[in-house]
Amino acid sequence: MIIGSHVQMKAPDFLAGSVKEALSYEANALMLYTGAPQNTKRRPLEEMKIDEAQKLMKENGIPMEHMIIHAPYLINPANSVKPEVSELATQFLTSEMQRTAAIGAKYIVLHPGSYTTTDLETGIRTIISCLNGLDIPEGIVICLETMAGKGSEVGFRFEHLAEIIAHMDHPEHFGVCLDTCHISDAGYDVSDFDSVLDEFDRVIGLDRLHIIHLNDSKNECGARKDRHANLGQGTIGFDTLCHIAHHPRTAHIPKILETPYIDGEPPYGREIRMLKEKVFEDMTKAQ
Ligand SMILES: [Zn+2]
How far apart are the CA of 70 and the centre of ligand 1, in A? Predict the structure, then answer.
């Protein structure tokens, strides 16, 4: 099982600290924002302790493609109403891809965005033109994330992502990140994960699936809300999430936890242990 979580990247250890955090959870994958997820301020590369991070990855036998970068969520390539927003998306994604390449990572997770006051088709067309305007470095793959369908979000049907990828000038630079909370909120029944994978394969192609975000959901299937819950504390439940984590058809794909902190503490060490041992432990009770 390739399993990890969202980890922080902060002073003084930056990227090396991110790897240390992942190792403290006994993870063999990790995902991070290269700065605050809600803004586009970024540190210069030379301060990020990249060499030390790469050394730690190597020493612990973790391939660099299991270090995943998440683009900040304010990046909205679907917005055609405010040109400065899509301009920022192009600008920021260009620098983010350079950072990802310098770090030695491969995958960048990107939310397709929200069409705001236009409509779904306009949103999809705006995303296509934004992404086709990018000069993507060799070896970098942008993974469009499946969304919950909250508000005017694009990407809550596999068909949306398939349409975007079908129109890419360089489709080899694009893949998908599947979020269990989001697709459940979007109306897919994840308790029948084989059928979900069959549908994904029919619409997008399973060879495009590179990352799974493993989260429980606070809301019922189809609620289109997007609120993550800790494993076994939501409507998906531990058994289904554990089944997905160990599913042979996605064994080669990193699973990343983005579950909420409990009492200000990251739950990831315990959640990863639960998945490895296949035993549910009520996280709301004291350790
Ligand atoms: Zn995401």
Answer: 7
Which residue type, as a one-letter code, is found at position 24?
Answer: S
Ligand 1 geometric centre to CA of 23 (Å): 22
- Residue 24 is part of which domain span? 3-277
Q: Tell me whether residue 159 is in a domain.
A: yes
CA of 184 to the centre of ligand 1 (A): 14
4 CA from centroid of ligand 1 (Å): 14
The rounded Å distance from CA 220 to ligand 1 centre is 19
Distance between CA atoms of residues 97 and 106, nearest Å: 9
CA of 110 to the centre of ligand 1 (A): 7
**What separation in Å is there between the alpha carbon of 269 and the centre of ligand 1?**
20
Is residue 285 a part of any domain in this protein? no
Say how many Å lie between the CA of residue 223 and the centre of ligand 1. 18
pTM above 0.70, yes or no: yes
Structural domains counted in the chain = 1
> How do 228-229 and 216-217 pair as beta strands?
antiparallel
Q: Find the 212 Cα to ligand 1 centroid distance in Å.
A: 10
In this structure, what is the dihedral angle of CA atoms 78, 82, 88, 91, given to the nearest 10 degrees?
80
> Domain for residue 287, yes or no?
no
Q: What is the CATH number of the domain that holds 108?
A: 3.20.20.150
How far apart, in Å, are the Cα atoms of 209 and each of 113, 123, 129, 133, 287? 19, 22, 22, 23, 35
For 63-116, what is each residue's pLDDT tens digit? 999 999 999 888 999 998 988 888 889 999 999 999 999 999 999 999 999 999
CA of 161 to the centre of ligand 1 (A): 14
Q: Report if residue 114 sits inside a domain.
A: yes
User: Per-residue pLDDT averaged across 161-177, rounded?
Assistant: 98
